[in-house]
Write a structure and sequence with these properties.
Blueprint (H helix, E strand, L loop, with lengths): L5 H10 L21 H5 L3 E2 L4 E2 L1 E6 L5 E7 L7 H16 L27 H4 L8
Antiparallel strand pairs: 1-2, 3-4
């Protein structure tokens, strides 16, 4: 979503995105926040520039924001990290909180079992190097 009009989005698809992908359709939704109303609600609207800055919000099925990231305009977002975070939130939700995902977790990697027995003993079951493999 951006403050750009649907006409600017169409130009971007036709002149830029079409040269980056082989698909015939845009692989993600493109929405216009022409007045910046959504950006204002989430605190990412830049009044001086009249634009939404780069923000990403992960909202669960109950409407609760579980994660957000706001970046200065010159820095792009990491789609793979967004997908990883969605998978982690889904796993935690499906487990009803009986599993937690440590730093660097990806599907198939070790989870943690939160609870009083884990406090002060994470080091016994997990190490920082696992965040980078």
């Amino acid at each position: 979503m951006s403050t750009d009009s649907m006409f600017v989005h169409k130009m971007w698809v036709d002149d830029e995105l079409s040269k980056m992908i082989t698909a015939k359709t845009v692989p993600f939704p493109m929405l216009s926040d022409g007045g910046g109303n959504v950006g204002k609600m989430y605190g990412i609207y830049d009044e001086a520039g009249g634009v939404d800055v780069r923000g990403r919000f992960l909202i669960d099925p109950d409407g609760v924001i579980q994660a957000f990231e706001v970046l200065a305009p010159p820095v792009g977002r990491n789609v793979l990290e967004t997908v990883r975070e969605i998978q982690a939130f889904q796993l935690v939700r499906e487990s009803k909180g009986t599993q937690a995902t440590p730093s660097g977790w990806r599907p198939g990697k070790q989870t943690l079992k939160p609870g009083p027995g884990l406090v002060g003993k994470v080091w016994e079951v997990w190490s920082v190097d696992k965040a980078f493999d």
